[in-house]
């Protein structure tokens, strides 16, 4: 584990210095066609479609890529997110994509670079603002064509700043309010398929679960006192820079097919593609219970629905939702 983590950290550091990346064959999803700017419309649901609450129903949507390796911990701003995605990247490590709407933190980061899987995940959000620190140069045309408002380090100006004693690239942060000022037409929250409400029948009492990738683990343990799942990173308590422990009221372990993209980093590690359109199995953790579930997403511009084993809607607990994407099958070779 120590070797894999060091290798991944070295990869990230080299990429931050702007070294060129090479390509190889693969089955990248087709880039989204250029889209007209949609008219923002609020969700018809009686609650915020991201967290089941009542706040921020007409607030714009902002997604931010955040480093998730040990040199970047503790992270800032993750506790304020409505939804947190955990995605596998090169070297078998993981990276977060935090989605904000109901509220914004004062600071978020360390902000890191985007990946090809992000664009497919974000299509269900309409046209959100998307913050990141950079991309593989060969991937940049797809970013430009995607239905997002780019507020990257390249375009975000003073919204980004260096903070703290960590070395580059682990010290880049951003002010979410300033990011959204750069994207005044960012879309409003829309129905992305989540349903919130009382727990369904059929759950199994569960203390916790550990998600695994080739070079990383994240655990989630139920806290009856806090009424949410508290996370660990590599077996250690995953604290937040603002204090407390990261975690959410609902944790979704979503099993999705992963394949190699045509992109590789300078050490030869492949960038995996997470196929978030389609269907598959899931494990949903809420209220100290676990539920075997199914997920389905018919197309990139549609939301992801979750159902119980008997086909009924899988309701989430109101509060922060983590979507933990793990490979459905053998691990993708880094």
Short account of what is shown:
This protein has 334 residues and is mostly beta strands.
Please characterize this protein's 3D structure:
The protein has one domain (2-19, 47-327): YerB-like fold, CATH 3.50.90. The protein has 334 residues and is mainly β. The protein contains five helices and 23 strands. The chain has helices at 2-16, 116-122, 140-145, 153-156, 176-181; strands spanning 22-23, 62-67, 83-88, 94-100, 129-131, 149-150, 160-162, 172-174, 195-196, 204-205, 208-213, 216-223, 228-233, 236-237, 247-248, 250-256, 258-264, 270-274, 278-286, 289-297, 305-308, 315-316, 321-327.
Number of helices: 5
Global mean pLDDT: 88
Radius of gyration over all CA atoms, rounded = 18 Å
Beta-sheet strand percentage?
25-35%
Give the CATH class: Alpha Beta
Percent helix range: 10-25%
Poorly predicted runs are 1-28, 30-41
**Total number of domains:** 1
Pfam family, one: DUF3048_C
Keywords: Signal
Domain DUF3048: 58-186, 215-323
Signal peptide: 1-25
